[in-house]
Target: KTSC domain-containing protein
Amino acid sequence: MNRSPVASSSIASIGYEAATMLLEIEFSSGVYQYDAVPEHIYMELMAAPSHGRYFARAIRDCYAYRKVA
Model:
C-alpha cells in the first residue's frame, strides 16, 4: 500500500485502500493496519490539524488492528 508522509510528531505516514476499507499508519514503533475504517474517517484524519489527536480520538480504540512491520 502506498502511504503519504504527514507532518506529525507521532505518525510518519498514512495510507488507505477504499476497496477494502483498510487504513495503514506508520508510527515510529512500526506499521499498523486498521480494518473496516470508513473513507470519511480517513479523509478527516488527513485533514485534521493534529493527526495524532484525531487518531487517538477517532481511530485508536474504535477499530480492530494488527502490526504488520
In short: Helices lie at 39-47, 51-58. The longest strand covers residues 11-17. The chain has a mean pLDDT of 97. The two ends are 13 Å apart (CA to CA).
